[in-house]
């Protein structure tokens, strides 16, 4: 439960809001690299933290991310022409380069120096891990890109996608650290993630009320969800919440690893980023087939958009037969679609003042606190956590540990990676 | 004409509004019985008086009507599974029975008693007359179900349907007691109601300015609309307005009887309930064919919804040729579609501060007063009218009476029914 | 750049606004004559300056333009029947003639005189130039219809159409006097206007930063845009802005002449009127084919509506290949579609407080001033400019003039027409 004030603080991220100020201190996943496939390709509209922007790749391959609207008379540059190292407004031909400088202004006399006085809002971009990243904060405070495992493996080992979710980012994020719901909502569907053995599925079903142990770390939170496996052992699903919006899915035996970022588009919608990867080998043909089927993390989209085909307007194509037969708890096909359905059903901005939280919500309660504290701290001049890229070199885990062993001790070697390990490809044999 | 304040009072029925408080003292038609066809069938979303609810029929056939959203984290229970005597939330498995008790909470440890502290908002339901009724008021003040004729005849004698109307309930209700418009709007279409003789049609056309005589009764209003039939006789169409939203259509010779309830969904839309019945015999094959054709009270709906196929987005499929040819005054096919078109065209909430009412609006003026008075009285602690079920044993009438006979005297025997008469089947021979 | 206050003043035209008061002093193009093709045809909904109206042509051919809603109970008269010299409401049969008088009220007793007390809001209409015009101001101040060339030529010489544009009228109007953008936005598409020689196209491309000379005239503004043609000559494109919303396109050699009116529907949308005409001969088969193709001023519409097929929901069917190939600067097919795309992309109401205007915006800056001054003057009792019909007898021009000749002198004979010239058909041989 949150007060109305804290809920507002948590969920509003537009320009000038305290949470918006916090988020502008981090790198932000903006587009898939493949959305700007080549130099001088068409620009793409991107809204981030409430700001309407336009991304383009110039003749030299450099990425620009600029205000969608031309400073002259506020016409959308979406209709502009991307060529010769700049994006040219279709109305009067003002042309801007990727750094936001006006490099041509044909509507003014050649002798005019008005061009030199005009710039367009522009944010620096970098590409890594198949993602175009941007930084929307004060230039002098720009950190290094985070170093998450999926970003660092070869392209062949990874699949990345983004899709629009029609609710505030935080309730989507909450789903990403909520191990509890995996036993219920995904009971019928985790096999869609590519689980090759039924073991984790059985363990999840056996104990549906995990006990949470949550530790604050430099990067955010380390969250252990403990389930009784047998008389001697606990089944631990361990995940990290990395500031400001990353969550990692504890692995399922045999399946690719997975994770998410939940990035505010505006206060009423977010971009759900999904990545699937294998640390030690390329994604297999079967992995790709499964992921592209919509059964796993990645969903099928309406062509030319980032909206899912199964969406709230069609009740996510609910199949009551499948629900009755136990194939899907919600009658909705696919792990990510299940999440999207319940999260969007909370309303565009969940009202956290009227909840009834239980012990299984411990990680969520803590995550809200961490984000709110970071926000309030920044208002008091205290620097945000999780800016150090190396702190992102963590791994989620899914392990059996003896009853008397603390998860941070027993799973220690699973919870981090070194660059050396990464280069040699970490084996996944100990995953349940 | 109403003041802005009275119009607000009349049309706002959400939780906590004075009119909402009044309406929560009556039984409310919520769903057709057939919408929950069998035990453990899928739940159905129902919005009543601005409250978003979910209806389900449990394993034993009991009906539940509960808050659409799980108290835990406010996820919609629409995606829940209805089985083993309860509705289980798809997110974390919290399960509620028809009385609103939480009967399972798998996300909490078995030893937890949190479950016993959690309930969900729930309203009692009863089934009668092919309708699932609910009561949303203080439990200790729950009355008996009303005893209207259509509810009491055998199922074979009756057809019931509901459809969404995209305007406030009261302007829809006004149409139900407005005999005057029958001579104009329905001039071309009353035959669609199954009128076997043209007599009533001719009488309606002959005198288009009925004089109204309105009497306040225990159940609401008794309304006589008098038209000149010939030198010696008047043609009386007599209808009742029963609190809080029922209207009865005066019969047409040869046709089934008909009536409506106009139930607020929210302030901008209402559910129009229609019932057709024969007191003395099953509906004939021809009756059913006519009603299902959309020509009568019941309209064709977009599959899977309660929205009519002919709706405001397509101008009710207006046919200007049919209008020119006199087949339909508005060019709209079907009696109910005609009503819906003009009522919705008044705006979602009609502005009653700028009307020009005439003598033919006498019944409407009186009905507004009755409902507003009941509302204001309740605010002063005076109990609402029309709660006694027996007062609903009334019948509308359509009769010729000598000029010098008052309608309440001349039509007296037509205006009520006894349970004994009902059992033997009342003949309809005297209807014009 | 405008202050927020002036932007509000400029863009709000509803009943009771200062700009609304100004515009109600002028004749307003309401419908194409062909939209009311014959006596007693169906009525047509028209919203003007925020007022929802209904147009109909009565049995005698007279045009009525009345409040869309019946004064009785505010039902839309759109569903009414147009016959026997009046429009009859479908609900209770109240009937109104084109002057707004209630001529029949069948719901009231024949002896009642209520009918004589009821009128409906009604505006006078006239037809000229294929357009139904209305006047919504004080009756005693009604001026004569303007006398623009396209209105006065024979029907065979003219094509008129209107289409909905989903933005405020003024940013659309700004496009109409903005010669500068012709060199850029229309660089690839002016041939779509029917330019038979490439000369004007070459001249436009050669100098993309025209210098503006703007003179205030009785009718509004005379605007000269000067481009360097060669060492000895300037290429002048001369256009008029006529109060309150007319703009004229400087001719292109060989093509029909063209012009626009940008009429507020409500504050968020406007009706773009387009007229193409030849002063001296009927439009040719080729002219008609080109105009109906969507390449010129007139756009293809969604059947039964005034909305364009290429619209903001489909990004105006942008063709990035055509854009890359230089066939169209914006990748949008057709001169008018290009304009609509950029103008609507400014938002429903452009924010003029954050612009960066250059010297090429001189005409726009002046036009805003002229309209705002007329508005403020009227508030102080000073009569509006441009009400004298004869002042509208102007012509746009497209000419080469020696460097040392002022455009008002050099082009003088091209900038007006007399009724005598018109009767004999003005030749167009001197157009560039």
From TrEMBL, chains A, B, C:
Domain of life: Bacteria
InterPro entries, per database record: Cholesterol_7-desaturase, LigXa_C, Rieske_2Fe-2S, Rieske_2Fe-2S_sf
Domain annotation Rieske: ranges: 27-134
Chain ranges passing through the membrane: none
Database matches in Pfam families: LigXa_C, Rieske
Gene3D superfamilies: Naphthalene 1,2-dioxygenase Alpha Subunit, Chain A, domain 1 (3.90.380.10), Rieske [2Fe-2S] iron-sulphur domain (2.102.10.10)
Keywords assigned: 2Fe-2S, Iron, Iron-sulfur, Metal-binding, Oxidoreductase
SUPFAM superfamilies, per database record: Bet v1-like (SSF55961), ISP domain (SSF50022)
Protein name: (2Fe-2S)-binding protein
Phylogenetic classification of the source organism: Bacteria, Bacillati, Bacillota, Bacilli, Bacillales
């Amino acid at each position: 439960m949150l007060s109305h004030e804290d809920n507002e603080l948590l969920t509003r991220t537009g320009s000038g809001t305290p949470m918006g100020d916090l988020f502008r201190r981090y790198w932000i996943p903006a587009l898939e690299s493949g959305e700007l496939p080549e130099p001088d390709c068409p620009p793409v509209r991107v809204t981030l933290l409430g700001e309407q922007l336009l991304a383009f790749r110039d003749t030299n391959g450099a990425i620009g991310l600029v205000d969608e609207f031309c400073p002259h008379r506020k016409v959308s540059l979406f209709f502009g022409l991307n060529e010769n190292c700049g994006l040219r407004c279709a109305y009067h031909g003002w042309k801007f380069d990727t750094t936001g400088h006006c490099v041509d202004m044909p509507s003014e006399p050649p002798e005019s120096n008005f061009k030199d006085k005009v710039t367009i809002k522009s944010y620096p971009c970098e590409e890594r891990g198949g993602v175009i990243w941007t930084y929307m904060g004060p230039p002098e405070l720009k950190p290094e890109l985070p170093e998450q495992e999926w970003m660092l493996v070869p392209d062949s080992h990874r699949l990345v996608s983004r899709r629009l979710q029609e609710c505030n980012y935080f309730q989507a994020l909450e789903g990403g650290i909520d191990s509890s719901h995996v036993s219920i909502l995904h009971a019928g569907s985790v096999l869609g993630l590519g689980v090759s053995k039924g073991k984790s599925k059985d363990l999840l079903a056996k104990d549906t009320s995990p006990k949470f142990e949550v530790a604050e770390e430099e990067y955010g939170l380390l969250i252990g969800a403990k389930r009784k496996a047998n008389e001697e052992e606990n089944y631990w699903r361990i995940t990290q919440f990395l500031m400001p919006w990353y969550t990692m899915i504890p692995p399922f035996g045999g399946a690719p690893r997975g994770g998410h970022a939940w990035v505010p588009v505006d206060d009423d919608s977010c971009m759900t980023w999904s990545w699937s990867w294998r640390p030690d080998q390329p994604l297999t043909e079967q992995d790709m087939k499964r992921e592209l089927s919509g059964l796993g993390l990645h969903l099928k989209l309406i062509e030319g958009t980032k909206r899912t085909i199964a969406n709230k307007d069609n009740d996510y194509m609910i199949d009551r037969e499948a629900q009755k037969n136990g194939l899907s708890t919600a009658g909705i096909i696919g792990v990510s679609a299940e999440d999207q359905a319940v999260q969007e059903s909370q309303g565009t901005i969940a009202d956290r003042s009227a909840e009834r939280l239980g012990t299984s919500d411990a990680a969520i309660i803590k995550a809200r606190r961490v984000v709110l504290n970071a926000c309030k701290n920044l208002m008091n001049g205290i620097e945000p956590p999780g800016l150090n890229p190396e702190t992102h070199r963590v791994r989620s885990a899914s392990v059996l540990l003896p009853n008397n062993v603390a998860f941070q001790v027993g799973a220690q070697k699973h919870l981090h990676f070194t660059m050396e390990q990464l280069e040699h490809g970490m084996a996944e044999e100990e995953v349940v």
